[in-house]
Amino acid sequence: MAGTSRGCSTTTTDDGPPLIDFYDGRARELLERATSLLDLGTGGGEHLANLGPFPPVAVATESYLPNVSVAADRFAPLGIHVVQRIRIRTAATARSRAIAGRSGAYHW
């Protein structure tokens, strides 16, 4: 079907600025008064690193091992800790996934 899109795009809105600009502005507003921050699936941290300053307790998670060290290097001067997210797959977690949705375990 022509005109059908999939996924999420943050590139534009019909009558305003790009959605990413709106998101960044709102994130900065919230960070100004936040006492802690948790970023799930930070990737290499490119986006989050530009949103500071950050609260005293700031943690980012990432599951893709090559990105963990990239994010840790990027975030070290900013005071953000990186936690590697790992997935534990067992028969029990497979059953609970169907009920609870996405799950994972964290270690550092």
- What's the helix-strand series? HEEHEHE
Structural class: alpha/beta
Total domain units: 1
Q: Please work out how many helical segments DSSP would assign.
A: 3
Low-confidence stretches: 1-8, 95-108
Proportion of residues in helical segments: 25-40%
Q: Would you report the number of β strands?
A: 4
Q: Over all CA atoms, what is the radius of gyration?
A: 17 Å
Whole-Å distance between the termini? 46 Å
**Mean residue pLDDT:** 78
Strand order of the largest sheet: 1-2-3-4
Sheet of most strands: 4 strands, mixed
Shape: globular
Strand content: 15-25%
Keyphrases for this structure?
disordered N terminus, 3 helices, alpha/beta, 108 residues, 4-stranded mixed sheet
3D structure, described in words:
With 108 residues, the chain is α/β, with parallel strands linked by helices. It has one domain. The protein contains 3 helices and 4 strands. A 4-stranded mixed β-sheet has the order 1-2-3-4, with helices on one face. α2 links the parallel β2 and β3. The chain is globular and about 45 Å long. It starts with 18 loop residues before the first helix and ends with a strand. Mean pLDDT is 78; it is low at 1-8 and 95-108.
